[in-house]
Design goal:
There is one protein chain. By secondary structure, the protein is α/β, with parallel strands linked by helices. It folds into 2 domains: 196 residues, 3-Layer(aba) Sandwich (Rossmann fold), CATH 3.40.50; 278 residues, P-loop containing nucleotide triphosphate hydrolases (Rossmann fold), CATH 3.40.50.300. It is built from 28 helices and 14 strands. The strands form 4 sheets. A 4-stranded parallel beta sheet has the order 5-4-6-7, with helices on both faces. The protein has a 4-stranded parallel beta sheet with strand order 12-11-13-14, sandwiched between helices. Helix 10 crosses helix 11 and helix 24 crosses helix 25. The chain starts with 21 loop residues before the first strand and ends in a 13-residue tail after the last helix. Pfam families: Sulfotransfer_1 (PF00685). Keywords: Transferase. One of its GO terms (molecular function) is sulfotransferase activity. Belongs to the sulfotransferase 1 family.
């Protein structure tokens, strides 16, 4: 057996369970993962005196008004326990005690006896192992079901994040534990073993068991609060239903960061704050209800993700929703795509070519537009470019891919000035700097982020807005408009031979004149007819109607393009939304506008850059 010092939950001084209660499997990377076992039930939590508690459970005395929340791990037990507790109390107020104080695997019988009625108990034990008195007294049971794939992914992060577990395996390694566990007829950590038994019981006892499905609750939380209240015979009005649903929303429960008591030795009643329980980089008890595709991309669960977990940079929006980026050597707010940090690390090795052309801009400031214009000018044709702009986007592509592009390359990036590869300046590449007013840029960025399937962000504009001042607190930030343009504007003024600065709002007024200006800057003079043809082909309406393919940044070597509809949610605007000037006025509240103006004035102090927030 592997050395258990760094593997188990417990210490020998406090654990009175026999050594043979230890049940250990090896993950896919050979790391030991310990549980406990009791009378054929394997996969029990490896906490002190777990076996002692299991032996004592037969003596548990239920009360007729006990309520039980049952469900496999990471399937929403906390959520439903909070809802049921608030319904019983008749108030939409966070419960002062942690759920763990009513969790039968963690507590001793005398402790439960001390709890006032009605008790809202909870457990992950299957119906075979729940104390018989629960069924004799016909206690009300709410069975919570969540799909097993999301449950196992969430369980992985739970185990990875707990300090006491001390497990540092990868998702790929952890995954290999699942088929091992499924082989056992009775297994605490087998989703299939759990629900196969409980589902049959629930169907036969609809008078005492209410089945709720996690995914259905996410769609309609208010009606599920009402359903639970009716089942518990505690009917409540619509106002309280809505208040409880809001108070028990994922965002609120995560933001509250309630204390959670670690299962300790018998009689130990101390509560440990959230930060003491979880590792520094852990998500904690509440991560996010990501869909599977999103998690594969954003959190590096796919085989080809090489960035480390500490590259993840998370903020909470104004409504408590987590928003993920990556970070690299002090630069925060980088796109949360696979191998972003690896690409950043390799960028100093980028070899520029003397005829390279660059389109630089903050996100959502017209990069696609100018890239198309410049590409058509270089090709001498008003024809849509067959490859997507993303294939020439340095944040998304590996050096080998960029090296394979034919001459001349029209490259593009949103990287701030100091992060551009030095060889670009050494070779005196031509740079087109595109500037758009920050208010419209941030509104467009909000729709971009909320529309992408892989981002899985469902926040409102008001929630997203609160991320902006947070981002501005960082000295170096990929998603800080002011940090980006303050530096680039000064550079552009000093290098007019290699940098052409264009303003989005002025281009909208005179697109043909700006096509000509770009052509002259690139040393590719073109006639009036072609200028007009390119301006028309690259008009916002034409580009939106064309619905070009947009490639999602994929793993290294993945070169296929994904059609527009595969990248964006069904109701999303896609890459092209409105392209207008002044749409920010339909989103910014008066208070938001005043806050933003103050931040803008402070951060742009000393700069003579001017932008138009509206045009005639």
């Amino acid at each position: 057996m592997a050395n258990m010092t760094n593997a188990t939950f417990h210490t020998a001084e406090v654990d009175q369970d026999p050594k043979e209660s230890i049940f250990e499997l090896k993950d896919g990377d050979g790391l030991p993962f310990p549980w406990k076992q009791f009378k054929g039930l394997v996969g029990l939590p490896g906490i002190p005196n777990m076996v002692q508690r299991m032996q004592n459970l037969t003596h548990f005395v239920a009360r007729e008004d006990d309520i039980w929340i049952c469900g496999y791990r990471k399937c929403g037990n906390h959520w439903v326990w909070e809802i049921a507790s608030m319904i019983i109390k008749g108030k939409a107020e966070t419960i002062a005690e942690p759920k763990e104080d009513y969790f039968i695997e963690h507590e001793d019988l005398p402790f439960f006896d001390s709890k006032p009625s009605p008790r809202v108990m909870n457990t992950h034990l299957t119906s075979d192992w729940i104390p018989k008195d629960v069924f004799i007294k016909k206690n009300k049971i709410i069975l919570v079901i969540r799909n097993p794939k999301d449950a196992y992914v969430s369980l992985y992060y739970h185990m990875l994040g707990l300090k006491k577990k001390n497990y540092e395996g990868t998702w790929n390694g952890f995954f290999e534990l699942i088929p091992q566990l499924i082989k056992y007829d009775q297994c605490y950590d087998s989703w299939l073993a759990y629900y196969k038994v409980f589902w049959e019981y629930a169907k036969q006892h609809t008078d005492t068991v209410l089945v709720v499905k996690y995914e259905d609750m996410l769609k309609d939380p208010v009606n599920h609060v009402r359903k639970i209240a009716n089942f518990l015979r505690k009917p409540i009005d619509q106002v309280l239903c809505e208040a409880i649903a809001e108070q028990c929303s994922f965002e609120n429960m995560k933001r509250n960061k309630q204390t959670h008591r670690e299962a300790g030795p018998e009689g130990e009643r101390n509560t440990k704050p959230e930060l003491k329980k979880w590792r520094d980089t852990a998500f904690g008890m509440y991560r996010k209800e990501y869909n599977m595709a999103d998690m594969l991309v954003l959190t590096g669960l796919n085989d080809l993700e090489k960035d480390t977990k500490d590259s993840i940079f998370e903020m909470i929006d104004g409504h408590g929703l987590p928003f993920l980026w990556k970070q690299f050597e002090g630069l925060v707010g980088l796109p949360a795509i696979p191998n972003m940090v690896q690409r950043m690390r390799n960028l100093p090795n980028f070899v520029a070519r003397e005829e390279d052309i660059w389109v630089f801009s903050f996100p959502k400031c017209g990069t696609h537009w100018i890239w198309e214009v410049a590409s058509m000018v270089i090709n001498g044709k008003a024809e849509t470019i067959p490859v997507p702009k993303e294939d020439y986007f340095v944040e998304h592509e590996d050096l080998a891919s960029l090296d394979s592009k034919p001459f001349p390359r029209v490259l593009n990036t949103h990287l701030p000035l100091e992060w551009i590869p030095k060889d670009v300046f050494t070779k005196k590449n031509k740079i087109i700097l595109v500037i758009r007013n920050p208010k419209d840029a941030y509104v467009s960025l909000y729709y971009h982020m909320s529309g992408m399937k892989r981002k899985n962000y469902e926040g409102t504009w008001n929630g997203f807005f609160e991320l902006i001042p947070q981002l501005m607190e960082y000295e170096k930030c990929y998603d800080n408009w002011m940090y980006y343009y303050k530096a680039f504007w000064e550079y552009a003024k000093q290098h007019t031979d290699t940098v052409l600065a264009l303003k989005y709002e002025e281009m909208l007024k005179d697109p043909v004149g700006h096509v000509r200006k770009i052509a002259e800057f690139l040393g590719k003079p073109i006639d009036q007819k072609l200028c007009e043809a390119i301006a028309e082909k690259c008009s916002f309406d034409h580009m939106k109607k064309a619905k070009q393919t947009s490639r999602v940044a994929g793993p290294e070597g993945e070169k296929h393009a994904k059609p527009e509809e595969k990248v964006w949610r069904d109701a999303a605007h896609g890459m092209y939304r409105k392209g207008k000037v002044g749409d920010w006025k339909n989103h910014f509240t008066v208070a938001q506008n005043e806050r933003f103006d103050a931040l803008y004035q402070e951060q742009m102090k000393g700069s003579d850059l001017t932008v138009a927030f509206e045009i005639d």
